[in-house]
Specification:
The complex is a heterodimer of chains A (99) and B (719). Chain A is an alpha/beta fold. Chain A contains 3 helices and 5 strands. Chain A starts with a strand and ends with a strand. Chain B has 719 residues and is of the alpha+beta class. Chain B folds into 4 domains: 204 residues, PAS domain (Beta-Lactamase, 2-Layer Sandwich); 62 residues; 221 residues, PPM-type phosphatase domain (Phosphatase 2c, domain 1), CATH 3.60.40.10; 139 residues, Histidine kinase-like ATPase, C-terminal domain (Heat Shock Protein 90). Helices cover 43% and strands 21% of the residues of chain B. Chain B is built from 16 helices and 21 strands. The longest helix of chain B is centred in the middle third of the chain and has 56 residues. Classes of the chains: A alpha/beta (99), B alpha+beta (719). At the A-B interface, strand 3, helix 2 and helix 3 of A face helix 15 and helix 16 of B.
């Protein structure tokens, strides 16, 4: 898994490639937490993400809660079919703004 | 001897039997005995001396009187004596019978008026009055009739007067001595107890005329009543003196005894008593005997010294014993530990391969001593090859156990490198010979079974014949070719042979402790009995088969002690189900740690890659593996770790993949967990419970089972 962060004026884009699973979730969380401290508006670009496991979903949930607390916005874009389905079945699609 | 022991006596009885009392009694009895003897002797001597003195008195008086009466100038008494004796002789028996009657006295009355009679009477009366003599008189002895015929007898009492001619019967011998007495002879005398006069000592001397003829005897009687009185006085005085002396001696002896015998003895017995008491109280360094200072110089001192030596020796010996016992206990503890370590060296969890249905393995090792030299081993060289090892190290105990450890590790290391059995044995032999200074050796049978084909390649380094059971047949010995034992020669090469195992075949290997188990009458159990026991359970599981042999040996041996280790290994080659060939289970066993998730994922993806599996499905399966395996890694053995096995099976019609996760951790059914409420808002949602929910949502079937101490979770995904 690799994480790239593109910092714009008032939003950050987090580009994730590979897999977010039990092994990589902690790295993913660290990267996300660093972004969340500096930005209120975050975009997750999952176009190169193969899949996300429940460990990754936990990071997404914590991120959403954190953004909600400071009234920012969180958006997921370019999720593939597998990832989209995971968001769907776990009900995350109703919590997180997925385009 | 007392009737009861000294421990049962009260103080009074003890006093009765005490040494001092015994001494006192013995002294008194001894002294009294001695005194009695002395008394008898003293009394006899006294009586003899006094008697002699009285006899002397009588003799001297007679002698004096004789001297006086024999003086011619005084008076010649011969005529008087002759006349009286002649008159007496002239009497008839009838007249003589009137002796001691006035009538008889009258016959001799004429003599009383003669001057010579009167003169003699005066003289004798004078002697009698001036001495202690009882009587002094003149008489003639008549040898014909044995009578003493009185001539002149002065008397102060009428009743005792003996007038001339009066006679008394008397013993001739003494009077003969008196008549024949001459100067220089022994004093003649007689002592007799007369009815008339009591005890009398009589001594007499002859009166002779100018021709030397005896015409009369001068006789003196001395009363011995004085002697009796003297003896009574002597007895009284002697008794008094003896009583005092005996008591003094007894007291002295008792005191002496107490000081020199009883006190040291009591000291020794007190020391012994204190010694015993101390030992009962657990004190061991007491010096009761060594502290005794008995210097009597006799056997008692010797006894005290011996007891002191004994005390020291006993104390030394006890200290030694304590040390040795402590050492023994330490060795015992270490041996017990060694036994555990050894037992843990061998694979001993059964079923040995819970996730495999094609083989069943069971083995036991029963060491005769705490640790033994036998071992068995089994392990998968790879997915399709099962290695079986049975071995017996020469000797017993710790050395054998150490040697066994090395042998076991070497065999398994070389076998796991994929070497063939003969090569494994050759390498192990080389390694062991390299440093086998103790010249120990080990017999090894090694077989590597191809689980797909049932072919088993074996090599035997001097071990017992293996036993093989074909699917439908009996257990039979395989008389294989033995190589030399391992550790004997470094240049040995081993040959190997191949056994074809049908599905359902069983192989049984063992160490010589089984056929060589011995009963009380020194009979060996033998391979025949072993084969019988095997065949009794031939259709059973390996566990049942081995237990049958164990039971048979147990019954056979009875109470006889087991001298050799007994080790057995049995494998049931079940083989794969028909048609399974297409859908072989693929198995991976790894430690249940998060780092192994990738390994498991790769393993499963390898299988999936052959199936043209769509990427999406593969992703979903990968997510499921991640969720389930991380669950096991985090929770099953927490905080420890343990093995987890993942099996992949491919099903056809419809094509599906079945993945089974097996762990031996704490029982946990993840399916019971309530699904998260997916309708809640982000702030209301919990972070947990998503993983298993995700699996349930993406997989076509999820099943959980807890069986034989294992969590078994199976997921199925149609492709």
């Amino acid at each position: 898994m690799t994480v790239d962060i593109i910092k714009n004026e008032n939003e950050a884009v987090i580009l994730v490639a590979g897999r977010i699973d039990t092994a990589t979730a902690p790295d993913f969380e660290n990267a996300v937490n660093a972004v969340l401290q500096a930005f209120d508006n975050v975009i997750f670009d999952f176009k190169d993400l193969d899949y996300i496991s429940s460990a990754g979903l936990r990071v997404m949930l914590r991120s959403q809660k954190s953004i909600n607390a400071k009234f920012g916005t969180l958006k997921v874009i370019n999720a593939n079919e597998t990832v989209a389905e995971i968001f769907e079945v776990t009900g995350f699609s109703s919590i997180i703004d997925i385009e | 001897m007392p009737e009861k022991s000294i421990r049962e006596m009260n103080w009074l009885e003890r006093g009765h039997y005490a040494l001092a009392t015994k001494t006192f009694r013995a002294t008194i009895i001894g002294a009294i005995g001695l005194g009695l003897v002395a008394f008898v002797i003293g009394l006899g001597l006294y009586a003899f001396a006094l008697g002699g003195q009285y006899v002397g008195t009588a003799f001297n008086l007679s002698r004096t009187a004789k001297g006086v009466l024999a003086l011619k100038s005084y008076v010649d008494l011969e005529p008087l004596c002759s006349d009286v004796y002649a008159k007496y002789k002239s009497l008839s028996e009838e007249e003589l019978a009137k002796n001691d009657t006035p009538e008889y006295e009258a016959i001799f009355s004429e003599f009383k008026d003669r001057d010579d009679y009167k003169k003699a009477l005066d003289t004798l009366t004078y002697f009698k009055q001036t001495s202690d003599v009882y009587d002094i008189y003149l008489a003639v002895y008549d040898f014909d009739r044995g009578c003493l015929v009185y001539i002149v007898d002065p008397e102060d009492d009428e009743s005792f007067t003996c007038y001339p001619g009066y006679f008394e019967y008397a013993n001739a011998k003494e009077f003969n001595d008196m008549i024949s007495w001459t100067e220089g002879d022994k004093r003649p005398y007689q002592i007799e107890n007369t009815e008339k006069y009591g005890w009398l000592a009589t001594s007499g001397l002859p009166l002779k005329n100018q021709y030397g003829e005896v015409y009369a005897l001068v006789l003196s009687d001395v009363s011995l009543s004085q002697v009796g009185r003297g003896m009574r006085v002597f007895t009284l005085q002697f008794s008094l003196a003896m009583f005092v002396v005996v008591n003094l001696v007894a007291v002295f002896m008792t005191l002496h005894m107490k000081k020199h015998l009883v006190k040291p003895l009591n000291d020794i017995s007190d020391a012994a008593q204190n010694y015993i008491k101390d030992r009962r109280d657990g004190r061991r360094d007491a010096t009761h005997f060594s502290d005794l200072h008995i210097s009597t110089g006799d056997e008692l001192e010797n006894l005290a010294l011996i007891m002191a030596d004994m005390e020291t020796d006993l104390s030394d010996y006890e200290n030694y014993l304590t040390r040795v016992t402590a050492e023994k206990e330490r060795v015992g503890t270490e041996l017990a530990l060694a036994t555990r370590i050894q037992a843990d060296m061998l694979p001993n969890t059964f079923p040995a391969f819970p996730d495999r249905s094609d083989i069943d393995v069971y083995a036991v090792m029963e060491p005769a001593k705490e640790v033994g030299g036998d071992f068995y081993d089994y392990f998968l060289v790879d997915e399709d090859h099962l290695a079986l090892v049975i071995a017996d190290v020469s000797g017993k105990g710790i050395p054998a156990a150490l040697f066994m450890m090395e042998s076991k590790i070497l065999v398994s290391n070389f076998a796991k490198q994929g070497l063939s059995p003969k090569e494994v044995l050759r390498q192990v032999n080389l390694q062991i010979c390299d440093h086998n200074k103790e010249e120990m050796f080990v017999t090894v049978w090694l077989g590597i079974l191809d689980l797909t084909s049932g072919k088993m390649v074996c090599a035997n380094a001097g071990h017992e014949y293996p036993v093989l059971k074909s699917t439908k047949g009996d257990f039979e010995l395989v008389k294989d070719k033995h190589g030399f034992v391992i550790g004997g020669l470094d240049c040995v090469r081993y040959t190997e042979y191949e056994l074809e195992l049908e599905k359902g075949a069983k192989i049984f290997v063992y160490t010589d402790g089984v056929p060589e188990a011995t009963n009380e009458i020194q009979q060996l159990f033998g391979t025949e009995r072993m084969l019988d026991a095997l065949n009794d359970a031939r259709d059973g599981t390996p566990k049942e088969i081995i237990q049958s042999v164990l039971w048979a040996v147990d019954v056979f041996v009875g109470d006889a002690p087991q001298f050799d280790d007994m080790t057995m290994l049995c494998v049931h080659y079940i083989g794969k189900e028909e048609g399974d060939d297409l859908a072989n289970s693929k198995i991976l066993t790894v430690d249940a740690v998060p780092d192994n998730i990738e390994k498991v994922t790769d393993f499963v993806n390898d299988e999936l890659s052959a199936l043209d599996c769509p990427l999406k499905i593969q992703m979903q399966i990968d997510v499921a593996i991640d969720e389930l395996f991380s669950n096991i890694a985090h929770y099953a053995y927490n905080p420890d770790t343990g093995p987890a096995t993942v099996m992949v099976d491919i099903e056809k019609d419809p094509l599906a993949v079945v993945i089974t996760f097996v762990d031996q951790g704490r029982p946990y059914d993840p399916l019971k967990k309530e699904d998260p409420d997916v309708t809640l808002s982000a702030d209301e949602r919990e972070v947990g419970g998503l993983g298993i929910f995700l699996v349930k949502k993406t997989m076509d079937d999820v099943k959980y089972e807890y069986k034989d101490g294992k969590n078994i979770l199976t997921i199925k995904k149609n492709i």
